[in-house]
Amino acid sequence: MDSPPDLRFLVRPRAAGGGLRGRLRVPGDKSISHRAIMLGAIAEGETRIEGFLEGADALATLRAFRRLGVVIEGPDAGQVRVQGVGLRGLQAPDGPLDMGNSGTSMRLLTGLLAGQTFATTLTGDDSLSRRPMRRVTEPLGLMGADIESSATGTAPLHIHPVAGLTGINYPLPVASAQVKSSLLLAGLYAAGETCITEPAPTRDHTELMLAGFGYPVRRQGARVCVCGGGRLTAGRVQVPADISSAAFFLVGASIAPGSDLTLTGVGINPTRLGVINILRAMGADIAISGECTAAGEPVADLRVRAAPLKGIAIPVDQVPLAIDEFPALFIAAACAAGETVLTGAEELRVKESDRIAVMAAGLTALGIEAEPRPDGIRIVGGALGSGTIAAHGDHRIAMAFAMAGLRAAGPIEIHDCANVETSFPGFARLAAQAGLAIEESWV
Ligand code: S3P
Questions:
Q1: 182 CB under 6 A from ligand 1?
Q2: Three-state secondary structure call for residue 343
Q3: What positions carry a catalytic annotation?
Q4: Which listed CATH number (3.40.50.10320, 3.40.50.300, 1.20.1560.10, 3.65.10.10) goes with 7-28+240-442?
């Protein structure tokens, strides 16, 4: 049998002094793009989205809502128009909804669909079909939802209609914005109030956007509450550039001598700033300027210049604020003087891949001492060699190792990179423009 086509990145070392330079804008924020479609769909009126991420994950959400009867025009150069159908206007789809590789689509949609009067089935690719879904199906069950999963609590998820949902008070066992958002979206359809208490702050885009659509959200410290039965009013959403995509360039420019790179219009919501806080603690030179607000979200330009990095013990409170940025941060750690230790990050084992195991294997293949631990990793900075890396279909692993090429002694070949498309279409082109010697090819 033929093996499926494999997108390979080949990254060659740069000439001395050839760092990342210039000004660039990375694509739109993935988390905000998903939410703009979801809330636009259940709002009353037309929502106009600008800067929408045209990556496979956000497109899976967009297509799902079309199948739920929502008229959506675009995307066209990041512009999308969603003709909202109101909280009760979604219609039964004509078959299962495929969420592809996207955990955010599956978990948030499960909450949003749990209180509908029709049945839905949500499916995903191999990676998504291995990821834990009980973290949403169990609390949704407490609200009265009827959701069937596999025996191990994974997709496909069959969501059956129920007479109604009831609000709950739920302390989140894991710091997860996806779970919080799923329950808040179900809460829009529930009788009474749904209150979620977080063990640590996580991204608050759902709360901010609900408020932006005129839906009352009550916040009290770590608790966030919504009452069911309100209405959302359509509006305009300007999606900032994704700090999680900017993260690869923040690391690349920090580790590559001679770099001076400005990333424009990046979302700097404090619940996403872990990557900047951690890199600065390691000695990175990152300047924030031109701060403004777009659709309730803070945005700024980030200028990053090469700087010598040092290893640190990563503060545990930064983990949820940098949860998607650890593959990139591990590359920074490999280029830092001394040891970097991450703890309290067991969640990394259930992302698009087991990011602790996959990063440790890749770093080891490049000659770096990397010791995986159940809840984190210990990385000793050193000289990166050349080697071959398996990205395991994980977009962020592929992009992180591409940046490692800026400091490696020889070429790095990265396999299984096609899913870079899920969050960062055009990554290789943009990185090449900034100065990374990267080629992509199907092999
Ligand atoms: C996301 C939340 C995070 C993050 C994911 C996007 C979101 O997941 O890893 O890429 O948009 O809510 P968890 O909340 O499960 O940690």
A1: no
A2: coil
A3: 324
A4: 3.65.10.10
Which pLDDT belongs to residue 386?
Answer: 97
For the four alpha carbons of 197, 202, 205 and 208, in that order, the dihedral sign comes to: positive
Question: What digits encode the pLDDT tens for the residues 111-152?
Answer: 999 999 999 999 999 999 999 999 999 999 999 999 999 999
The string of DSSP codes covering 66-105 is: HHTT-EEEEEETTEEEEEEE-TT-----SSPEE-TT-HHH
Atom number of ligand 1 nearest to Cα 347: 16
181 lines ligand 1 (CB under 6 A): yes
Report CA torsion sign: 113, 119, 124, 130: positive
Ligand 1 center–CA 177 separation, angstroms: 6
How far apart are the CA of 414 and the centre of ligand 1, in A?
A: 25
Q: Tens digit of pLDDT for each residue in 188-206?
A: 999 999 999 999 999 999 9
Nearest CA to ligand 1 atom 1: 178
Mean pLDDT value across residues 319-335: 98
Report which ligand 1 atom has the smallest distance to the Cα of 177: 14
Q: What is the H or E stretch that residue 285 is in? A: strand 285-294
Hey, is 391 helix, strand or coil?
coil
Q: Give the number of the atom of ligand 1 that is nearest the alpha carbon of residue 323.
A: 9
Q: Are 288 and 235 in contact (CB under 8 A)?
A: no
Q: What angle do CA 246, 247, 249 make, to 5 degrees?
A: 70
Nearest of 420, 419, 439 to residue 429 by alpha carbon: 439
CATH 3.65.10.10 domain span(s) along the chain: 7-28+240-442, 30-238
pTM for the model stands at 0.98
Element (H, E) at 193: strand 193-197
For 359, the enclosing helix (H) or strand (E) is helix 355-365
What pLDDT does 367 receive? 98
Written out in words, the top-level CATH class of the domain with range 30-238 is alpha beta
Q: Which residue's CA lies nearest to atom 13 of ligand 1?
A: 176
209 within ligand 1 shell (Cβ under 6 A)? no
